[in-house]
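Marked as duplicate of an earlier ticket. Keeping the data here for the record.
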Amino acid sequence: MTRAFNDYLDMLHGAAPADDAAEIAAAAMARLASFAFGPKSICTVLIAELEGEAIGYLTYFIGVFMDDATPTLHVADFFVSAPHRRRGAGRALMLGAHRIAQDLGASRLFWTVWRRNHDAIRFYDKLGAVLEPQDGSVLMEWRV
């Protein structure tokens, strides 16, 4: 699988690899392969490639928006390596997810973005996404 997803995108963010980076990347890729590409997949991964190298990915799963009982596509993770940003890879990944959502009859896509990540918010705004009004809801995490 594209050299263990290019050593898990060079350990995310292209930082200088640690001594055990290849081992960590291989373990992460094995976990990802088991739940994204296996017979009981719980998510799907779109991969952006340039000349055979993975330069970004978007991971998603399908859920239900109960307000109108329609399918929704939830973007779980989205990443484009820094040297390849602002060159269309991120747009292609998001448009691919949007197309998949349309094909499924989904009513919307959901994802989270850090409030302070202004570049990402501008990028999503240009795609036509809207920042949901702050209605007091917060993202909760409960570790297992």
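See parent ticket for discussion. Residues 21-36 form the longest helix (16 residues).
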